[in-house]
Write a structure and sequence with these properties.
Blueprint: E1 26-28, E2 31-33, E3 35-39, E4 50-55, H1 59-68, E5 72-76, E6 82-87, H2 89-96, E7 102-105, E8 108-112, H3 127-131, H4 133-138, E9 147-152, E10 165-170, H5 184-193, E11 211-216, H6 226-238, H7 240-243, E12 245-250, H8 264-274, E13 278-282, E14 303-309, E15 320-321, E16 339-342, E17 346-349, H9 355-359, E18 364-365, E19 369-373, H10 375-392, H11 398-408, H12 427-431, E20 437-438, H13 455-461, E21 469-470
Parallel strand pairs: 2-19, 9-11, 9-12, 10-11, 12-13, 13-14, 14-16
Antiparallel strand pairs: 1-2, 3-8, 4-6, 4-7, 5-6, 14-15, 17-19, 18-19, 20-21
């Protein structure tokens, strides 16, 4: 099947979501612990059918193929070359037998809680000091002019975003991308680019002058699906130049059901990456078991972020991995996550009256802030770091931004490439990592006849292989597991 870059056309106003799901946040004690995850298979509207994404060379062919077997098309994914359809088991078997067709589940999106057993601590927001972002900001590198598209539940127009919440689209059906009825997107946006207004400067984001673009894929009920997330990614690509979008934040993930080369979410983020947009994705909250990194965080190109506990201190000496952060390798044998950042008991912005706010009053900090845990928030902090690097070098391509972040990473608390990747986010060091570039593509290790994949082959294709780097004298110095031999 051919991968195609492209954009998505939408009508003015709001667009209709293509599906449904269950998105929930659960509070434990005084901390609301949340992340985004996708459960397989959305329920279809017709009895006895399943909601799927049918991909071909273009969406016109996909539409004709689906209707030609009597199945119902529910939505068009435009230049992604796919349609959303309700198919019976017999119809799905026909499509699956066609070598020109790829059938994928239109999975349900669900915000799940970090495990109740995960210990909590006093809330803090020291991540800008931990990563060195505060020192860059003091020099004027604050994300100014860089747009970050937050594909989430919308962003409330709080004073902390004044003049910098510059655009968006509502794909949830609620009709307003700046109404965060659920509360997750506002929290994520605050970690990326909050300027501290609501807390008199106490709690600021990683890039406090960056612009935000609200790509709302879930409303008050917190419901969405894979097709709607893809629609949101396509909208961000189509409006890249209108809003100066340099970064897409995806604090969500799906349980992989197929190789990344065939997964529609992976194909969507690769399209954005190839259009010059840095894509940052949460690793997932299903750790500490191996092989729990979700899609599209399993994609070779994107920056996949796990969660560490900074213990509320600026020093890295007491940092520890969280028990919930998802662990690699991926089902394709790819080394993930790429790095880790603060993700336990972090403080960000509250969306007053939202579902999360109403359900978790004990998680409120003062009048304008909130506390939460999850890799969702580690990804948000890293998106802010990417915005800082793009302000410093507006012409940097995504591969270079990723190279800087990985080369600048400090030693991680686990010293394990499948747990904390290249290490802990250090944007100050990343900003000094000049002349580096990663030579990335979307290649995957070959699958053996018994269905296994070689981790040695995964290493050869990954950022751990010195041959994947160019510029300077990179020799894999941030590798923190020297005895690893594949």
């Amino acid at each position: 099947m051919t991968k195609r870059n492209g954009t998505m056309r939408t009508t003015k106003g709001t667009a209709r979501s293509l599906g449904r799901s269950s998105l929930r946040v659960v509070a434990f004690g005084t901390v609301a612990m949340c992340s985004l995850a996708l459960a397989p298979w959305a329920s279809a509207e017709q009895a006895g059918t399943s909601r799927v994404i049918v991909s071909m060379v273009d969406s016109t062919q996909a539409h004709q193929r689906v209707t030609g077997i009597g199945a119902k098309v529910r939505g068009d994914l435009g230049d992604a070359g796919a349609v959303v359809a309700d198919v019976s088991p017999a119809q799905q078997a026909i499509l699956a037998a066609d070598p020109n067709v790829q059938v994928s589940p239109d999975s349900v999106v669900s915000i799940t809680a970090a495990p109740a057993s995960a210990p909590t601590r006093a809330p803090a927001a020291v991540f800008p000091q931990v990563t060195g972002a505060d020192r860059l900001v003091s020099k004027g590198v604050n994300g100014y002019g860089v747009g970050v598209a937050v594909i989430d539940t919308g962003i409330a127009p709080l004073p902390d975003f004044a003049g910098r919440l510059i655009g968006g689209v509502d794909l949830s059906g609620e009709g307003n991308p700046f109404k965060d009825s659920y509360g997750h997107g506002t929290f994520v946006g605050g970690l990326i680019a909050g300027n501290g207004y609501s807390s008199a400067g106490a709690y600021v984001g990683e890039a406090p002058a960056a612009n935000l673009v609200a790509v709302k894929v879930a409303g008050a009920s917190g419901t969405t699906d894979v097709a709607t997330v893809i629609q949101g990614i396509q909208w961000a690509v189509a409006n890249q130049h209108t809003y100066g979008i340099g970064v897409i934040n995806l604090s969500l993930g799906a349980v992989p059901t197929q190789p990344a080369a065939l997964d529609p979410l992976d194909r969507a983020v690769e399209t954005a990456w190839n259009h010059g947009i840095v894509v940052v994705v949460s690793a997932g909250n299903s750790g500490p078991r191996n092989g729990t990194v979700t899609t599209p965080g399993n994609d070779p190109l994107v920056i996949t972020v796990g969660a560490l506990d900074d213990k509320g201190t600026v020093t890295r000496e007491d940092d520890a991995m969280t028990s919930f952060s998802s662990v690699g390798p991926t089902m394709d044998g790819i080394f993930k996550p790429d790095l880790v950042a603060s993700g336990r008991s972090v403080i960000s912005l509250r969306a007053p009256g939202s579902a999360v706010d109403a359900a978790n009053p004990s998680a409120r900090i003062g009048t304008g802030n909130f506390v939460g845990s999850g890799t969702s928030f580690s990804a948000a902090i890293t998106s802010g770091a990417a915005a800082l690097l793009l302000q410093a070098d507006p012409h940097a391509r995504p591969d270079r931004v990723k190279a800087q972040l990985l080369a600048g990473a400090a030693r991680g608390p686990a010293a394990n490439p499948f747990v904390d990747g290249h290490g802990s986010l250090n944007v100050l060091a990343a900003a000094s990592a000049k002349g580096l570039s990663l030579k990335q593509d979307a290649s995957l290790p070959k699958v053996a006849t018994d269905g296994s994949v070689s981790l040695a082959d995964g290493w050869k294709l990954s950022s751990w292989n010195p041959d994947s780097w160019s510029g300077a004298s990179w020799d894999g110095a941030s590798w923190n597991g020297a005895s690893w031999n594949g």
